[in-house]
Design a protein that fits this description.
Elements (H helix, E strand, L loop, with lengths): L10 H9 L3 H10 L3 E3 L6 H14 L6 E4 L9 E4 L5 H7 L8 H11 L7 E3 L10 E3 L5 H4 L13 E2 L3 E4 L12 E3 L2 E6 L2 E5 L5 H12 L4 E6 L4 H6 L9 H9 L3 E5 L5 E3 L4 E15 L2 E2 L5 E2 L2 E13 L4 E3 L9 H21 L3 E8 L4 E6 L6 H10 L10 E6 L7 H11 L5 E8 L12 E9 L21 H14 L4
Parallel strand pairs: 1-2, 3-18, 4-12, 20-21, 21-23
Antiparallel strand pairs: 2-3, 5-17, 6-9, 7-8, 7-11, 9-10, 10-17, 11-14, 12-13, 14-17, 15-16, 19-20, 22-23
């Protein structure tokens, strides 16, 4: 099949894209491939769900999604975790074998990347499954959701994997400027919550606009979504580019949208939607929360939202995530989709860029492989990376390696660091903008940039006494021999 971008998909990938239209569909599909389990025993919300989430996420290659439906204190409620917690699950979503290497997943996403032409289907609100139940009065989030603390010292209950939809306060009819993002949401009361977003994020930008111009900002918090949606809600795309469009384009199949009561677009098959409105210039004390750098963020005053209505499917699934000291589901969920836009933006200016690995802590450390066109060229590529939308706030440590060094193979990266780096290949730029929750920051919001150029030397560099590198055999022939050896190990002729 082909998308509007004429990206061809395999028959299997096309069939999966057509079949998976919701979280429920994906969980069933994963179960058929031994990638989703129902926890058989009763659990306590804490620490059981946390501990089992960590255990599932520790198997980065093929850890399963886990469904809990016997939660003490929450009769009849269901929780799903680790849905995106392994690269095997991501591979299955893309129609690939669950043992597909991470590097191949990266290039598959790149192959599907680019066009912003939406593949969207409109569903009348009265026909949307998410509207099977509607609550407009006496809203109580504590009754509706099986809430628990994600980390033991969190300051409260967090909704950490919801996709939040918001329209530009000054251009509410601009579909492209309608943002879908994942932000940390702390439940503050039966019908209130806080949402943390920094000004560099689209949501933060919209909250600032709303308060500066006295405009309303209505949001829809979607919980339990089509599996492509969280991947792109966490992807740093352009402000006027639609995450709905990107998600549908990557899947090669239409996403079903409907209109929420507050006017935002939402997924018709999502499990639950909490509609809220920003309380202009009101703040509540929020945190601490165990964040992706592996540390508790501090306590801050954060914008407050009031819930205006809730819609949900029958017997909804509360999809949540474990986030904290890596590796966690958070890293697997956003790693490849952090790498892909950085690669796409660099590739426009520097076709010599071969691949980008920004898997680590949302890109606080990134590795770029590039063909070194002339001496010092890689350092220019690094500077450009720091100017990308994501790089501006996140790319703290950058390692540049040759184009024949696989940035997803840390053994190869360590070889480059060990043998290709000189003192003058290391650059430290202090006093740069930085995501405020970096625990290494001396002042929240400011930090350094470290660039290590581990590419090969070129004239007019001093090439050294032994400049000739060994031409290591690699490529499809070696891959075939590895497969052959694997079969021999298993006793196959």
């Amino acid at each position: 099949m082909a998308t509007e971008k004429t990206v061809s998909l395999s028959a299997e990938a096309g069939a999966i894209a057509a079949r998976v239209g919701s979280l429920r569909d994906f969980l069933t599909f994963l179960g058929e491939h031994e990638q989703c389990v129902r926890w058989p025993d009763p659990v306590m919300p804490e620490p059981d769900i946390r501990n089992i989430s960590v255990a599932a996420g520790n198997n980065v290659a093929t850890g399963p999604a886990v469904i809990f439906d016997q939660i003490r204190g929450y009769p009849g409620k269901r929780v799903a975790v680790n849905v995106h917690g392994s690269f095997g699950n991501l591979a299955l979503l893309l129609g690939l074998p669950k043992t597909t290497p991470v590097r191949d997943l990266f290039f598959e996403i790149i192959r599907r990347w680019g066009s912003d032409k939406p593949l969207l289907e409109r569903v009348p609100p009265e026909q949307a499954p998410v509207n099977e139940n509607r609550i407009d009065k006496n809203i109580n989030l504590y009754d509706l959701l099986p809430l628990y603390r994600i980390n033991a010292n969190d300051g409260g209950f967090y909704i950490a994997k919801a996709c939040v939809v918001s329209r530009d306060p000054l251009e509410p009819d601009n579909f492209g400027k309608q943002n879908v993002g994942i932000y940390r949401i702390q439940v503050m009361g039966p019908d209130t919550f806080t949402l943390l977003s920094i000004p560099a994020h689209d949501m933060g930008r919209q909250m600032l606009m709303a308060e500066q111009h006295g405009k309303p900002l209505k949001v829809s918090v979607m919980i339990g979504n089509h599996p492509a949606m969280p991947m792109f809600a966490a992807t740093p795309v352009g402000y006027d580019e639609s995450e709905f469009a990107y998600a549908s384009q990557m899947m090669g199949a239409a996403l079903r949208l409907t209109t929420a009561v507050n006017g935002t677009d939402i997924l018709a098959d999502t499990e639950m939607v909490i509609e809220g409105e920003l309380q202009l210039n009101q703040r509540e004390v929020e945190g601490p929360f165990g964040e992706f750098p592996g540390s508790y963020s501090g306590v801050r005053k954060v914008p407050l939202f009031r819930v205006t209505g809730v819609s949900h499917r029958n017997n909804p699934i509360f999809e949540n995530i474990y986030i904290g000291k890596g590796w966690t589901e958070h890293d697997t969920l956003i790693g490849l989709n952090t790498s892909a836009p950085i690669y796409a933006q660099l590739k426009k200016d520097f076709p010599e860029v071969a691949a980008v690995n920004a898997l680590y802590q949302h890109g606080l450390t990134g590795i770029i492989s590039v063909r070194n066109r002339f001496s010092g060229f890689a350092k220019s590529v690094a500077m450009r990376a720091l100017g990308t939308p994501h790089g501006t706030m996140y790319l703290k440590n950058l390692i540049l390696v040759d184009e024949n060094v696989d940035p997803f193979d840390l053994n190869q990266v360590m070889w480059a660091l060990s043998t290709r780096t000189r003192a003058n290949d290391i650059i430290v730029i202090p006093n740069m903008p930085m995501v405020p929750i970096d625990p290494a920051a001396e002042v929240p919001g400011k930090g350094h940039r470290l660039i290590i150029d581990a590419t090969s030397f070129m004239a007019p560099d001093n090439l050294g006494a032994d400049p000739h590198l060994v031409d290591r055999p690699m490529g499809p022939a070696i891959d075939a021999l590895m497969q052959r050896l694997n079969e021999l190990q298993k006793g196959h002729a």
